[in-house]
Design a protein that fits this description.
Elements lengths: L1 H28 L2 H10 L3 H15 L2 H13 L5 H14 L2 H6 L4 H14 L9 H27 L3 H10 L4 H14 L2 H13 L5 H22 L6 H30 L4 H8 L3 H34 L22 H28 L4 H26 L6 H31 L6 H26 L4 H10 L2 H15 L5 H29 L4
């Protein structure tokens, strides 16, 4: 028995190791080109569904596909309406691994495991390392499952195993509930479906209990998406809730059909899957495919009614488009000089976000922390798009002057990123200012000074003549020395400050020094621009 238990445990460990490694490898394969491919295919619903099937098959996680699409919606690459058919298709595509795992391909899996393992030491294949890792991981998943099954079979012959099954009796709901919970805990629907099939093949579950467990796995997948999407708002949340609804809608049909078949004796889903194969494993794999095909069919039909309901229930946020590019786009890369102008316009938008940040610090609303976090997320999303756009511009043919402009744009973005981080820290510190009029007065002085300089910075970024750039440079000179004198004055003159309050004064002045230094660097760069 110990040998069988160790074999089953080893198989389980290999299985989860393969699934973990597969998820990591597939993340690396789904970069910007993958997103561009999706954006190009969404214009026709049939093509969008087909792309969803392919994406689900490649990523083996509808949750992962949903969040990739949510990020594209947040950045403006995709609309919610265009993403919904892709999600429906992804649910079907994600069943591919379950089908393959239950075919008799043991010799093929062993050969694949050996060949991909050996490939890791072949230096010439290093550029294919990510793809080979994904293939190796899939092989590990299959190998672990077969090992798990070979360990479970001897255990089912033990007396205690029969006693354990007797506790569950003929309950159908218990396997459904347990499978739902295990799916949420493991964060993988496919993993628990495959384990259910392996356990049933070894005699651990009846066929009907396995059917309900598979339904539970899919319901658990919806709860998993619901938990992971708790921080989403607006359009991305609409997409996530569509995926959450997918499995509930499918289960609302499949579960009643199951009980009608069991208690009314009418041949429905179970009769269908039993007629498709003599193998128990394949029958249950087909059940998972049918569940998702039914769900996809229902949701595709319901999209015209469901989409408006989602939009009303989870409305678009007022600042949701702040994280989306307005000016830069892929076609702009064909005209590099004009593309740099467009990148500059996006950087001006980022500068306005910094000014809005100070408005929150000045007014201190009750939800200041949430507003700051939201603005910071929008800044980061847009800044990421600008960085990627500038990186791709680096591959374009420029003359010497063009490369100089590109270098300034990259450096300008770096300085704006630094200012964003500094102002986020300043806002967090501002929330700690209380109980001392001196600290509050200092904060007010810093905010007003930074606000004036940031407004001048925005004028300088929009300046075509050079006058505002000269003013920007003039007002940022020696600001660091001014802040140092202010800090020394506050710490020396106010004897009523506690140690904690003095620490807050130090942090405030240090952050303002950093902000003025970054602004000074930006002013010097902008002044050097040839007009």
């Amino acid at each position: 028995m110990l040998h069988a238990l160790a074999t089953a445990l080893a198989g389980l460990g290999i299985f989860f190791a393969g699934m973990y490694q597969l998820k990591d490898a597939l993340k690396k394969l789904t970069g910007r080109r993958f997103k561009q491919l999706i954006a190009a295919w969404i214009h026709r619903p049939v093509a969008a569904v087909a792309l969803g099937v392919a994406a689900g098959g490649v990523m083996q996680s509808t949750t992962a596909v949903t969040f990739v699409l949510a990020s594209m919606i947040a950045t403006g690459l995709l609309t919610v309406g265009g993403a919904l058919p892709i999600v429906a298709g992804a649910n079907v595509g994600s069943t591919m691994l379950i089908l393959l795992a239950n075919l008799d391909i043991q010799l093929f899996v062993l050969a694949l495991l050996g060949l991909t393992g050996i490939s890791f030491v072949v230096e010439r294949l290093s550029r294919f390392r990510t793809i080979l890792t994904a293939v190796f991981s899939v092989s590990l998943v299959f190998f672990g499952l077969k090992m798990l099954q070979s360990g479970i079979v001897p255990l089912t012959r033990e007396p205690w195993f029969g006693d354990l099954l007797a506790l569950a009796g003929a309950s159908y709901f218990l396997p459904l509930v347990i499978a739902t919970c295990l799916t949420v805990l493991s964060q993988s629907t496919s993993s628990i479906v495959l384990l259910t099939i392996a356990l049933t093949a070894g005699g651990g579950l009846t066929f009907e209990q396995a059917m309900m467990a598979i339904y539970g796995c899919n319901i658990g997948g919806s709860f998993q998406t619901l938990l992971l999407s708790s921080n989403l708002r607006g359009r991305p949340q609409q997409l996530a809730m569509f995926q959450v609804s997918f499995n509930f809608v499918a289960a609302s049909l499949m579960v009643p059909l199951f009980f009608i078949e069991q208690y009314a004796g009418i041949g429905l889903v179970e009769r269908l899957i039993r007629s498709l194969s003599a193998s128990t494993q394949l029958q249950l794999a087909y059940l998972q495919v049918i569940f998702n095909l039914v769900g996809a069919g229902l949701m595709l039909v319901l999209i015209p009614w469901f989409h408006p309901i989602l939009a009303k229930r989870f409305p678009t946020l007022a600042d949701e488009d702040d994280g989306r590019p307005i000016y830069i786009h892929d076609q702009a890369l064909e005209e590099p000089d004009s593309a740099l102008d467009l990148a500059g316009l996006e950087q001006q938008r980022l500068a306005t976000y910094l000014i809005k940040r100070l408005e929150i610090v000045r007014e201190r609303p009750k939800n200041a922390a949430a507003l700051i976090n939201r603005q910071s997320q929008n800044f980061t999303m847009l800044a990421t798009e600008v960085h990627e756009f500038l990186r791709r511009l680096g591959e374009a043919p420029f003359d010497v002057g063009g490369y100089d402009r590109l270098d300034r744009a990259i450096n300008r973005q770096r300085l704006l990123d630094g200012l964003n981080e500094t102002l986020v820290d300043l806002a967090a510190t501002a929330g700690q200012v209380a109980g001392s009029k001196a600290s509050q007065a200092l904060l007010g002085t810093i905010v007003e000074a930074l606000d004036a300089v940031l407004l001048t910075m925005l004028d300088a970024l929009q300046d075509m003549k050079g006058e505002d750039r000269a003013v920007f440079l003039a007002i940022t000179r020696n600001r660091g020395n001014v802040m140092q004198r202010i800090r020394q004055s506050y710490l020396a003159s106010d004897g009523n400050l506690t140690v904690a309050q003095k620490g807050t004064v130090l942090i405030l002045t240090n952050l303002s020094e950093r902000a003025f230094w970054l602004l000074g660097q930006l002013a010097e760069q902008e002044q050097a621009v040839d007009v």
